[in-house]
Amino acid sequence: MDAESVILSLINSRNNGIPETEAQKLACETLSRSEWHDGLQNLLSSHAIIRESTDFTPFLRVATTSYADLRLSGQQLMVYRVIDMVGQRGITEDELVKKLHGKNFPIKKDIKKSLKSLLEAQHVRTIQSIRNRKEVLYFAAGVEPTASLTGGRWYTKDKDFDSSYVDQIRKSCLRFSRDHPNDHVTSQKVYQWLTTKGKESTIAPDVEDIAQVLFTLELDGVLRIVGDHIRSSSLTKSKDRSRSPIEREYTLAKQVASPPFFQ
To answer: Mind listing the UniProt keywords for this protein, alphabetically (predicted)?
Structure first.
Protein backbone atom coordinates (compact mmCIF):
# COMPACT_ATOMS: atom_id res chain seq x y z
CA MET A 1 0.00 0.00 0.00
CA ASP A 2 1.45 3.39 -1.01
CA ALA A 3 1.91 6.28 1.44
CA GLU A 4 -1.16 8.22 0.23
CA SER A 5 -3.38 5.15 0.69
CA VAL A 6 -2.05 4.51 4.21
CA ILE A 7 -2.66 8.12 5.28
CA LEU A 8 -6.06 8.34 3.60
CA SER A 9 -7.16 5.09 5.24
CA LEU A 10 -6.23 6.45 8.68
CA ILE A 11 -8.12 9.70 8.15
CA ASN A 12 -11.15 7.85 6.72
CA SER A 13 -11.30 5.73 9.88
CA ARG A 14 -12.39 8.82 11.88
CA ASN A 15 -15.71 10.45 10.99
CA ASN A 16 -14.72 13.84 12.37
CA GLY A 17 -11.07 13.80 11.35
CA ILE A 18 -7.92 12.92 13.28
CA PRO A 19 -5.27 15.07 15.02
CA GLU A 20 -2.30 15.42 12.68
CA THR A 21 0.18 14.33 15.35
CA GLU A 22 -1.83 11.17 16.02
CA ALA A 23 -2.14 10.42 12.29
CA GLN A 24 1.62 10.83 11.85
CA LYS A 25 2.39 8.54 14.80
CA LEU A 26 0.09 5.81 13.46
CA ALA A 27 1.20 6.17 9.85
CA CYS A 28 4.89 6.07 10.76
CA GLU A 29 4.41 2.58 12.17
CA THR A 30 4.58 1.50 8.50
CA LEU A 31 5.94 4.59 6.72
CA SER A 32 9.18 6.52 7.01
CA ARG A 33 9.03 10.21 7.96
CA SER A 34 9.84 11.26 4.39
CA GLU A 35 7.10 8.99 3.02
CA TRP A 36 4.65 10.51 5.53
CA HIS A 37 5.61 14.05 4.58
CA ASP A 38 5.49 13.45 0.81
CA GLY A 39 2.22 11.51 1.00
CA LEU A 40 0.59 14.14 3.19
CA GLN A 41 1.62 16.99 0.87
CA ASN A 42 0.32 15.10 -2.18
CA LEU A 43 -3.07 14.57 -0.52
CA LEU A 44 -3.28 18.20 0.60
CA SER A 45 -2.27 19.63 -2.78
CA SER A 46 -4.80 17.41 -4.58
CA HIS A 47 -7.52 18.52 -2.09
CA ALA A 48 -8.28 14.89 -1.20
CA ILE A 49 -7.85 15.90 2.45
CA ILE A 50 -8.05 19.16 4.38
CA ARG A 51 -5.91 20.43 7.23
CA GLU A 52 -7.75 22.58 9.76
CA SER A 53 -7.12 23.88 13.26
CA THR A 54 -9.61 23.07 16.01
CA ASP A 55 -8.81 24.98 19.21
CA PHE A 56 -5.19 25.32 17.99
CA THR A 57 -4.86 21.57 17.29
CA PRO A 58 -4.13 20.70 13.61
CA PHE A 59 -6.70 18.20 12.36
CA LEU A 60 -6.81 16.22 9.12
CA ARG A 61 -10.08 15.22 7.52
CA VAL A 62 -11.31 14.01 4.16
CA ALA A 63 -12.70 16.76 1.92
CA THR A 64 -16.49 16.90 2.26
CA THR A 65 -17.05 16.58 -1.44
CA SER A 66 -15.26 16.55 -4.77
CA TYR A 67 -14.98 20.12 -5.99
CA ALA A 68 -15.68 18.96 -9.54
CA ASP A 69 -19.07 17.55 -8.44
CA LEU A 70 -20.23 21.00 -7.31
CA ARG A 71 -20.20 22.42 -10.87
CA LEU A 72 -19.19 25.89 -9.71
CA SER A 73 -17.87 28.83 -11.66
CA GLY A 74 -14.23 29.80 -11.18
CA GLN A 75 -14.99 32.58 -8.71
CA GLN A 76 -17.54 30.49 -6.82
CA LEU A 77 -14.99 27.68 -6.51
CA MET A 78 -12.34 30.00 -5.07
CA VAL A 79 -14.78 31.25 -2.43
CA TYR A 80 -15.96 27.73 -1.63
CA ARG A 81 -12.43 26.35 -1.26
CA VAL A 82 -11.51 28.98 1.33
CA ILE A 83 -14.67 28.21 3.34
CA ASP A 84 -14.12 24.45 3.06
CA MET A 85 -10.48 24.64 4.12
CA VAL A 86 -11.13 26.54 7.37
CA GLY A 87 -13.36 23.62 8.37
CA GLN A 88 -14.94 23.66 11.82
CA ARG A 89 -13.59 27.13 12.72
CA GLY A 90 -15.74 28.88 10.12
CA ILE A 91 -14.96 32.23 8.50
CA THR A 92 -16.62 35.64 8.44
CA GLU A 93 -17.49 37.58 5.31
CA ASP A 94 -14.86 40.21 6.17
CA GLU A 95 -12.20 37.51 6.51
CA LEU A 96 -13.20 36.07 3.14
CA VAL A 97 -12.90 39.47 1.48
CA LYS A 98 -9.43 40.01 3.01
CA LYS A 99 -8.24 36.61 1.78
CA LEU A 100 -9.65 36.84 -1.74
CA HIS A 101 -9.68 40.52 -2.69
CA GLY A 102 -6.94 41.18 -5.23
CA LYS A 103 -5.94 39.77 -8.57
CA ASN A 104 -8.74 37.17 -8.80
CA PHE A 105 -11.36 39.43 -7.22
CA PRO A 106 -10.53 43.06 -8.07
CA ILE A 107 -14.10 44.03 -7.17
CA LYS A 108 -15.16 43.16 -3.61
CA LYS A 109 -18.85 42.85 -4.48
CA ASP A 110 -18.02 39.86 -6.73
CA ILE A 111 -16.92 37.95 -3.62
CA LYS A 112 -20.24 38.70 -1.93
CA LYS A 113 -22.11 37.78 -5.10
CA SER A 114 -20.36 34.37 -5.24
CA LEU A 115 -21.01 33.87 -1.53
CA LYS A 116 -24.72 34.60 -1.99
CA SER A 117 -24.99 32.08 -4.84
CA LEU A 118 -23.25 29.39 -2.72
CA LEU A 119 -25.75 30.00 0.09
CA GLU A 120 -28.71 29.79 -2.30
CA ALA A 121 -27.37 26.51 -3.70
CA GLN A 122 -26.89 25.25 -0.10
CA HIS A 123 -23.21 24.51 -0.67
CA VAL A 124 -22.42 26.62 2.39
CA ARG A 125 -24.35 27.59 5.51
CA THR A 126 -24.10 30.11 8.31
CA ILE A 127 -24.29 30.18 12.09
CA GLN A 128 -24.13 32.93 14.69
CA SER A 129 -21.28 32.53 17.15
CA ILE A 130 -22.19 32.47 20.85
CA ARG A 131 -19.09 34.57 21.47
CA ASN A 132 -20.43 37.43 19.37
CA ARG A 133 -24.11 37.53 18.43
CA LYS A 134 -23.38 39.92 15.56
CA GLU A 135 -20.74 37.64 14.06
CA VAL A 136 -21.96 35.39 11.22
CA LEU A 137 -19.67 32.51 10.28
CA TYR A 138 -19.71 30.54 7.03
CA PHE A 139 -19.18 26.78 6.79
CA ALA A 140 -19.16 24.23 4.00
CA ALA A 141 -22.37 22.19 4.01
CA GLY A 142 -21.97 19.10 6.18
CA VAL A 143 -19.23 20.57 8.39
CA GLU A 144 -20.16 20.80 12.09
CA PRO A 145 -18.84 23.90 13.89
CA THR A 146 -16.79 23.45 17.05
CA ALA A 147 -18.69 23.48 20.34
CA SER A 148 -16.78 26.63 21.29
CA LEU A 149 -18.74 28.42 18.55
CA THR A 150 -22.16 26.86 19.02
CA GLY A 151 -22.06 26.15 22.76
CA GLY A 152 -22.98 22.54 22.06
CA ARG A 153 -25.79 21.21 24.22
CA TRP A 154 -25.37 24.09 26.65
CA TYR A 155 -27.08 26.52 24.30
CA THR A 156 -30.48 26.56 22.59
CA LYS A 157 -31.01 27.01 18.86
CA ASP A 158 -31.52 30.71 19.60
CA LYS A 159 -28.02 30.80 21.14
CA ASP A 160 -29.36 31.36 24.66
CA PHE A 161 -27.74 29.51 27.55
CA ASP A 162 -29.95 26.49 28.28
CA SER A 163 -30.28 26.79 32.06
CA SER A 164 -33.12 24.24 32.01
CA TYR A 165 -30.80 21.60 30.51
CA VAL A 166 -28.15 22.27 33.15
CA ASP A 167 -30.72 22.20 35.95
CA GLN A 168 -32.03 18.82 34.80
CA ILE A 169 -28.51 17.35 34.85
CA ARG A 170 -27.96 18.76 38.35
CA LYS A 171 -31.19 17.16 39.54
CA SER A 172 -30.25 13.85 37.95
CA CYS A 173 -26.80 13.84 39.59
CA LEU A 174 -28.26 14.54 43.02
CA ARG A 175 -31.10 12.10 42.56
CA PHE A 176 -28.56 9.39 41.69
CA SER A 177 -26.71 10.19 44.92
CA ARG A 178 -29.96 9.99 46.91
CA ASP A 179 -31.05 6.69 45.29
CA HIS A 180 -27.59 5.12 45.70
CA PRO A 181 -26.50 6.18 49.21
CA ASN A 182 -23.80 3.51 49.41
CA ASP A 183 -22.33 4.32 46.01
CA HIS A 184 -20.04 7.14 44.94
CA VAL A 185 -21.24 9.50 42.22
CA THR A 186 -19.27 9.54 38.96
CA SER A 187 -20.14 10.96 35.56
CA GLN A 188 -20.03 7.49 34.00
CA LYS A 189 -22.40 6.02 36.61
CA VAL A 190 -24.89 8.86 36.21
CA TYR A 191 -24.69 8.50 32.42
CA GLN A 192 -25.38 4.74 32.58
CA TRP A 193 -28.21 5.33 35.05
CA LEU A 194 -29.85 7.89 32.74
CA THR A 195 -29.40 5.54 29.78
CA THR A 196 -31.16 2.68 31.54
CA LYS A 197 -34.04 4.97 32.50
CA GLY A 198 -34.90 5.22 28.80
CA LYS A 199 -38.10 7.14 28.15
CA GLU A 200 -38.29 8.20 31.80
CA SER A 201 -35.37 10.57 31.18
CA THR A 202 -36.12 13.77 29.25
CA ILE A 203 -32.44 14.62 28.64
CA ALA A 204 -29.54 12.86 26.93
CA PRO A 205 -26.29 14.44 28.16
CA ASP A 206 -22.94 12.87 27.39
CA VAL A 207 -20.37 11.89 30.02
CA GLU A 208 -18.41 15.14 29.57
CA ASP A 209 -21.52 17.26 30.22
CA ILE A 210 -22.26 15.35 33.41
CA ALA A 211 -18.64 15.68 34.58
CA GLN A 212 -18.81 19.46 34.17
CA VAL A 213 -22.05 19.68 36.15
CA LEU A 214 -20.62 17.49 38.94
CA PHE A 215 -17.71 19.92 39.16
CA THR A 216 -20.10 22.88 39.55
CA LEU A 217 -21.90 21.00 42.34
CA GLU A 218 -18.52 20.56 44.04
CA LEU A 219 -17.83 24.29 43.73
CA ASP A 220 -21.28 25.01 45.20
CA GLY A 221 -20.45 22.82 48.21
CA VAL A 222 -23.25 20.35 47.43
CA LEU A 223 -20.86 17.49 46.57
CA ARG A 224 -17.32 16.80 47.67
CA ILE A 225 -14.62 14.66 46.10
CA VAL A 226 -14.19 11.32 47.86
CA GLY A 227 -11.13 11.51 50.12
CA ASP A 228 -11.00 15.31 50.01
CA HIS A 229 -12.00 15.57 53.68
CA ILE A 230 -8.88 13.74 54.89
CA ARG A 231 -6.32 16.09 53.37
CA SER A 232 -3.65 16.88 55.92
CA SER A 233 -3.19 20.46 54.69
CA SER A 234 -4.43 22.85 52.03
CA LEU A 235 -1.21 22.17 50.11
CA THR A 236 -1.83 18.42 49.89
CA LYS A 237 -4.09 17.26 47.12
CA SER A 238 -6.37 14.27 47.58
CA LYS A 239 -5.63 11.26 45.43
CA ASP A 240 -8.95 11.59 43.62
CA ARG A 241 -8.44 15.27 42.74
CA SER A 242 -5.51 14.27 40.53
CA ARG A 243 -7.87 12.22 38.35
CA SER A 244 -9.48 13.62 35.21
CA PRO A 245 -12.96 15.18 35.78
CA ILE A 246 -14.63 12.15 34.19
CA GLU A 247 -12.92 9.74 36.62
CA ARG A 248 -13.58 11.67 39.83
CA GLU A 249 -15.79 10.19 42.52
CA TYR A 250 -18.12 12.35 44.59
CA THR A 251 -20.37 12.05 47.59
CA LEU A 252 -22.85 14.44 49.19
CA ALA A 253 -21.22 17.06 51.37
CA LYS A 254 -22.12 16.53 55.06
CA GLN A 255 -23.42 20.04 55.50
CA VAL A 256 -26.08 19.59 52.79
CA ALA A 257 -29.10 17.96 54.38
CA SER A 258 -31.73 18.47 51.69
CA PRO A 259 -30.54 19.78 48.30
CA PRO A 260 -33.25 21.95 46.70
CA PHE A 261 -33.08 20.02 43.43
CA PHE A 262 -34.85 17.04 44.99
CA GLN A 263 -38.10 18.97 45.20
So the answer is: Nucleus, Transcription
